[in-house]
Design brief:
By secondary structure, this protein is mainly α. It has 21 helices and two strands. It folds into two domains: 61 residues; 391 residues, Growth Hormone, Chain: A, CATH 1.20.1250. It has a two-stranded parallel ribbon. The protein is globular, with a radius of gyration of 26 Å. It starts with 16 loop residues before the first helix and ends with a strand. This is Major facilitator superfamily (MFS) profile domain-containing protein.
């Protein structure tokens, strides 16, 4: 077998290329001499590893050195050679494109109308969960009086959502990605999320007594655990059910349930719970709210349970025959594109019979050929992806700040407007406004991403405008002008709330073909940790330097996140997988 050949990209040759061409022989995938890593090439050519990667990228070699090519190719490259061969440095056009084109010839792609029903059911599940997140901290004065606890403990009823996320995200991602190969991932993730939400709501029914604040925290913990399963499902469901031009929009609609639930919490809770003269009357209001939520969440759980286990459907176009291609780069390979047996049934909320895009077809074919998800290996590859780790930090700062602002909004409003009688209702309206316009922002930016695929440009613009919105909101609170607070809350909410689905999609683009559940689950860890840190730090700074300067400090932290976003390279892997000669595959839509 000869060495991998250089691909002529039509670009001027780099001065470093000559040294590397002599080292390309190290990449020759033969039994006796398995391909070397980029570190070996760097050592052999006396250049840095980053320089090696850049030259390989310039010369047309596969840049995804942390992901083996059989994860990117249809079915797999079943080579009659050592499994130690590293195909990642074989020229991408010589290796990946012929296999990809062969897959396209045999692939049928289709989107199904019932995908909207799946999306609606998911959004409702997330809505009834997230409405409970802010239900205590938005009325801190009432809760501190009824349970005789400090404001910090009241804030902890929201913080606990973030605290539980970190230890729970790994088993949740494991369930979603590991069971996905058994056509069970989305089913059980949705069912567990709805069930835990209902259980936690009923636990809080039992907490209506001044001496049962601990039960309140336990109930919030269970509901927060349910949210873990539901939030990690959103990007995977969008990718599995929706076409490449609808994924970002679908993800935005999925996040809509999250944001609208928080909005309802801001609006409804202050209207139901009043600061009565007697604790008995306050307890009656709490009982009414908890029983109502418990009943609604139970109904949602029953609906999900019925939908999840109704009989599956058949699709006559589901099956395609196994194909093979001849020698590829002097290697005997077989590209298998079996999509399952023709009589196989599927769950309502798992993958449809036919993939909605070529990117999903690649992932399915890989799974069908026995390349099961390596959960720990996937996490390792994600952490070794420098682009993704930068995005992790930037996403953590933005979403962590969003959680902090929502948690402390009641206190921020109280500081400036406590002399007015309706300041609690005013805080609820501001929170509602922030979340609702954030929902609109997520829809707008999702649509923009689907139409333009300008991921970095959109993300950076949203981030910068979020910083400006935070600065404006800080000064408007200090001015004690309700009109200015309303205006700046709209700006802050539109961009800060609209960032979340944009961050989801950027993460999926940077990490393809890693499982969406794992990539998204990792995205939620930094916001959860930073949300707790930011909330405690923000509250402390308010007492030390005042609310205005504390808010400006956190606007500066958001600016750091914008700088990190500017450092992300344009490496759109999923977009690359979804593009190709469209006449080579059958679109059944």
């Amino acid at each position: 077998m000869g060495p991998a050949q250089r691909v002529d990209t039509g670009q001027p040759r780099n001065v470093r290329t000559q040294d590397l061409e002599n080292a390309v022989g190290l990449l020759t995938p033969v039994k006796q001499a398995p391909a070397r890593s980029t570190r070996d090439i760097a050592w052999a050519t006396n250049v840095s590893k980053s320089a090696v990667l850049q030259v390989l990228r310039d010369e047309g070699y596969h840049p995804y050195h942390y992901i083996t090519t059989h994860h990117l190719l249809p079915g797999a490259l079943l080579c009659h050679m050592s499994k130690q061969v590293d195909y990642t440095l074989v020229p991408v056009k010589a290796l990946e494109e012929p296999a990809k084109c062969k897959l396209q010839e045999d692939t049928k792609v289709k989107v199904y109308p019932r995908r909207w029903l799946m999306l609606l059911m998911f959004s409702v599940c997330l809505l009834v969960n997230c409405v409970q997140w802010i239900q205590y901290s938005i009325i801190p004065q009432v809760i501190t009086r009824y349970y005789n606890v400090s404001t910090t403990l009241v804030d902890f009823t929201s913080i606990i959502y973030l605290v539980i996320f970190v230890p729970a995200i790994f088993p949740a991602s494991y369930i979603l990605d590991r069971l996905a190969s058994l056509l069970m991932g989305l089913r059980w993730a949705t069912l567990l999320g709805a069930g835990l939400t209902a259980l936690g709501a009923w636990m809080k029914v039992w907490s209506v007594s001044p001496d049962r604040f601990l039960i309140t925290l336990l109930g919030q913990t269970v509901v927060g655990l349910g949210q873990v399963f539901q939030l990690t499902t959103s990007p995977r469901m969008a990718a599995v059910w929706f076409g490449p031009d609808q994924v970002a929009t679908a993800c935005s609609i999925g996040v809509f349930g999250n944001q609208f639930g928080v909005a309802l919490g801001f609006l409804v809770v202050p209207l139901i719970i009043k600061n009565h003269d007697t604790l008995l009357d306050i307890g009656s209001d709490l009982s009414f709210m908890f029983y109502t939520l418990a009943g609604i969440t139970s109904i949602v759980f029953i609906i999900v349970l019925i939908c999840e286990f109704q009989p599956g459907h058949r699709d006559k176009n589901e099956a395609t025959r196994t194909t093979a291609c001849d020698a590829l780069l002097y290697m005997r390979v077989a590209i298998l594109s079996d999509y399952g047996q023709a009589t196989k049934t599927y769950s309502q909320t798992n993958e449809p019979p036919l993939p909605p895009s070529l990117g999903q077809a690649l992932q399915r074919a890989t799974a069908r050929e026995g390349h099961k998800n390596d959960f720990l290996g996937s996490i390792k590859r994600l952490l070794c992806n420098s682009n993704y780790t930068i995005h992790l930090m930037a996403y953590g700062i933005n979403v962590g700040m969003y959680n902090t602002v929502c948690t402390l909004l009641g206190q921020l409003i109280e500081i400036r407007f406590q002399n007015t009688e309706d300041w609690e209702q005013f805080a609820g309206r501001i929170g509602l406004l922030i979340v609702l316009v954030g929902t609109a922002g997520s829809m707008v930016f999702g649509f923009i991403l689907d139409k333009t695929h300008k991921y970095k440009e959109t993300t950076l613009a949203v981030y910068i405008l979020t910083v400006l919105g935070m600065v404006g909101f800080s000064f408007s609170l200090a001015s004690e002008s309700r009109l200015l607070v309303y205006i700046t809350a709209v700006l802050l909410g539109f961009f800060m709330g609209g960032y979340m689905p944009v961050g989801f999609e950027v993460g999926s683009e940077l990490t393809y073909p890693e499982p969406e559940g794992t990539a998204t689950g990792m995205l939620f860890i930094p916001p959860s940790i930073l949300g707790v840190v930011f909330t405690l730090l923000y509250s402390w700074l308010i007492g030390v330097i005042g609310d205005l300067w504390a808010s400006l400090v956190f606007a500066g932290i958001l600016g750091i996140g914008a700088i990190l976003t500017a450092c992300i390279r344009k490496d759109y892997r999923r977009l690359t997988a979804n593009t190709g000669p469209k006449h080579r595959h059958q679109d059944l839509n």
